[in-house]
Amino acid sequence: MGQTIGKSEIGELEICEITGCHSLEEIHQLSLSGLNLMSVNSDVLKRLRNLHSLDVSKNKLSGLKLEGFTLNSLKELNCSSNNLLSVDDFVLFPNLEKVDVSDNVSLEVADRYKLVSLLPKLKVLEDKDVSVMREAVKKFDGILAAKVAEHWNGHFEEAYRMSEDVSYRTDVANEFIQSLQTDVVIGPAALKKYREFKLTLLGQEHAVKRKHEKSAEQRPAKALKTSPAEVEETIFQSQNYKPQFKSKRVGVNYAQSEFVLSQLLQTHSLNNDPSDRRTQVWACEFQPDPLNPDKTTTLCATCGGDAVCFIECKTGEVSKKYKQPGDVFYCLAWTVFHVKTASGVEYRTALAVGGKQCDIRIIQPEDLVCYDSVEAHEGSIESLHFHPTEPTWLFSAGDDNQIVLSELGLSTAAKTNPKATILMKLRTQGILRSLTVPRHGEVLVGGGDKGCTVWSIIACANKKSHLPLYELNFPGKKKVPLDCVKCLSDHVIATKRVKEPCIMLYYSESSFQKNDASPAFRLPWKVTDTPFIKFNFRADCDILIAGDDLGRVWIYDVNRCLCESRQGKKLEELKETQKLICANGTVKTFNHVCSSTNMDYVVAVADSNVVCVWRRLKPA
């Protein structure tokens, strides 16, 4: 084997020369030992999809410094005799069974504890069986978990339980997590780094668990079912919930940030045809963070043609692609659900997608597994939306003029895949293109070819009435089709009607449970005859974004629209903060747009098989 000395990192050609393989995908074992490497080429490493064993010992690596991908095939990793400062990057190799980090002077016992904690399949560490250490880690984790619960109950539970203010409860949870580092001191000094690491994780998990419990206390809940008759009579019950106004923004106004076009991708080509400019990409949404569903990861799902793509926006890499030959996917929706495992409760994400073939597919993105195929409609699926407080309840609308509420079989044992059940079906006057539910979860709002209609979920689910509560009253022509409707808060929804050069915000004092909605704000937008252009809303920033048919994304700061009652006030006009432009000849119409937490990434999908990704430039 030839060796190259003095390289800061090593490239594809050199690796192929060292291994004698023609491509990176052929490589199963790779030794880069003793090459004086300062870093690992992440662009090369992420293409080693079939790599089983990697030896980077006897180099000058301070860390692997990788992000945005995982190597699930890697089972053995030798990083001995380097300058490693931490083992945090090892989480990118979840299936490691054998690891060597000996002779890295900065690594301590605490780092080895962390390795055992991060790598559930690890069997051998530095040529020693880890079963004894794993028992020690498990015992120490149990002690820490008890201390975390004790600290919460003694100092934070009462303040959290008594408050109905979401932002205040968030502050309490954050203070709790920070205080663990100073107030919980246990174990030997040699494990300080591991204790701090684990306390942060346990604190976050406890806060998320308490948040879900608090939501369950407040939200409308399914009734206790004691007999088959009661199952038929009562599916859904309302609790006393008080809709709230948002707080006025303090700090960064993300709508005024500077953005740069970072990726221009052609990801949905039929038959992998590079000249395909006809496949329309219809929808995009960022994956919610499983431990904090109000925020997102940087993974964006897009659908169009016969494919669903999962794009890591940090790198522009399509990390996964789900294909269903013959289908045309029109819509998608994410949810976060919990699964009971041997080690406790885990929070996971699932993606629902639907289109021309009439069924709804429930996809688990990490392993690209299809949990279920829900056959609820006799026509194409036009819109999907998960209930905000019942994460397994999925609303779907199809061109068969029906709304269907399905309960997905997700929150059960990890090794079973029970099928979805249909809770209710509603007939509609026309095709609905968009569904949305306010945070209180008691009404369903649908926009489509015949206007905008509101139903009581409680009355419909309990089979008391399948008739709508009311239809939204629009000024001017009453029966103009709607492209999109979205709840921005308990009191405000946004609507866009075909051929109208504006997006309208409607205010309801009753949080849309009565027919009292009236126009509150007018957001000027592009004059166009192009239908089916849908906008989106980033709730953590109070920013509404909308694409148009000139390859632009309009950004509106709507914070002040959500902070106070608009009852009796006149209609106001609110102009866009800025427009993002994609100066590319192939981009014409953006069918849909979305953004990640803090507007760090904005994604727009076009009718020309193009996905555009903008990155927010953060101040130095």
From TrEMBL:
<keyword id="KW-0539">Nucleus</keyword>
<dbReference type="Pfam" id="PF23211">
    <property type="entry name" value="LRR_LRWD1"/>
</dbReference>
<dbReference type="InterPro" id="IPR001680">
    <property type="entry name" value="WD40_rpt"/>
</dbReference>
<dbReference type="InterPro" id="IPR056363">
    <property type="entry name" value="LRR_LRWD1_dom"/>
</dbReference>
<feature type="domain" description="Leucine-rich repeat and WD repeat-containing protein 1 LRR">
    <location>
        <begin position="24"/>
        <end position="199"/>
    </location>
</feature>
<dbReference type="InterPro" id="IPR056160">
    <property type="entry name" value="WD_LRWD1"/>
</dbReference>
<protein>
    <submittedName>
        <fullName>Leucine-rich repeat and WD repeat-containing 1</fullName>
    </submittedName>
</protein>
<dbReference type="GO" id="GO:0005634">
    <property type="term" value="C:nucleus"/>
</dbReference>
<keyword id="KW-0963">Cytoplasm</keyword>
<dbReference type="InterPro" id="IPR032675">
    <property type="entry name" value="LRR_dom_sf"/>
</dbReference>
<dbReference type="Pfam" id="PF23215">
    <property type="entry name" value="WD_LRWD1"/>
</dbReference>
<keyword id="KW-0433">Leucine-rich repeat</keyword>
<dbReference type="InterPro" id="IPR052489">
    <property type="entry name" value="LRWD1"/>
</dbReference>
<feature type="domain" description="Leucine-rich repeat and WD repeat-containing protein 1 WD">
    <location>
        <begin position="263"/>
        <end position="615"/>
    </location>
</feature>
<dbReference type="GO" id="GO:0005694">
    <property type="term" value="C:chromosome"/>
</dbReference>
<keyword id="KW-0158">Chromosome</keyword>
<dbReference type="InterPro" id="IPR036322">
    <property type="entry name" value="WD40_repeat_dom_sf"/>
</dbReference>
<dbReference type="GO" id="GO:0005815">
    <property type="term" value="C:microtubule organizing center"/>
</dbReference>
<dbReference type="InterPro" id="IPR015943">
    <property type="entry name" value="WD40/YVTN_repeat-like_dom_sf"/>
</dbReference>
<keyword id="KW-0206">Cytoskeleton</keyword>
